Automatic annotation (TrEMBL):
Entry protein name: NB-ARC domain-containing protein
Transmembrane segments: none
GO molecular function, one term: ADP binding
Domain of life assignment: Eukaryota
Ranges where the NB-ARC domain occurs: 18-102
PANTHER family, alphabetized: DISEASE RESISTANCE PROTEIN RP (PTHR23155), DISEASE RESISTANCE RPP13-LIKE PROTEIN 1-RELATED (PTHR23155:SF1241)
InterPro entries according to UniProt: Apaf_helical, Disease_R_plants, NB-ARC, P-loop_NTPase
Biological process terms in GO annotation: defense response to other organism
Pfam families per UniProt: NB-ARC
Length: 192
């Protein structure tokens, strides 16, 4: 199947049509629009999206979730909050719920201390906590837990973000071909 290629003037027409349609949909209505993983740093993109949203009723809100605080540049009067990670007890509970689903709160004593260290490594980030929990869910060997914990801790001094640090042990367990696929994908820029 060949990709469809449109002339730029048709894309412009389509874009303006979508802007008009969005304005019609929100006109006079109070709404909450949630944009998850918003990643463009181009102010023009936000401005073009914002214009039709101005048709909404007073009190309408747009919630934008992004990893990079730099996207706020160019936005008019943004109010943003830096979300904090899970509290220690919550991240430990999340990790235990994923790793020991049948434990009903009872965690093997040998693994309890290691599980606390691993949950702390994730710095309260749910994705990191879930990733490591899933990796260790079927693992009962204490030495393997220690190895994964030590590997992840050794990466802590590097400038690798906590999520990537938590995904590294999973990456190391991949077969050679799968690792090569990741290496190939890494040549493309973000959001390509």
């Amino acid at each position: 199947m060949k990709p469809t290629v449109f002339p730029s003037y048709l894309l412009d027409d389509l874009f303006y049509y979508l802007q008009d349609r969005l304005a019609e949909l929100v006109k006079g209505k109070k709404f909450l629009l949630v944009l998850d993983h918003f990643c463009t740093k181009e102010p023009i993109f936000w401005e073009r999206l914002r214009l039709p949203l101005l048709e909404g009723a007073e009190g309408s809100r747009v919630l934008i979730m992004a990893r990079n605080a730099g996207i706020w540049r160019g936005m008019t009067d943004p109010h943003f909050e830096q979300l904090q990670g899970l509290e220690k007890d919550d991240r430990q509970k999340l990790f235990n719920d994923i790793t020991f689903p049948q434990a009903n709160g009872d965690v093997d004593k040998k693994l309890k201390n290691i599980s606390e260290s691993i949950a702390d490594i994730c710095q309260g980030l749910p994705l990191a906590t879930i990733s490591l929990g899933e990796l260790l869910k079927s693992e009962t060997n204490v030495d393997n837990w220690k190895t994964i914990c030590n590997e992840t801790l050794s990466l802590e001094n590097n400038s690798i973000c906590p999520i990537l640090r938590s995904l590294m042990p999973s990456y190391h367990q991949l077969n050679y071909e799968s690792k090569q696929c990741f290496v190939l994908c890494s040549i493309f820029p973000e959001n390509y």
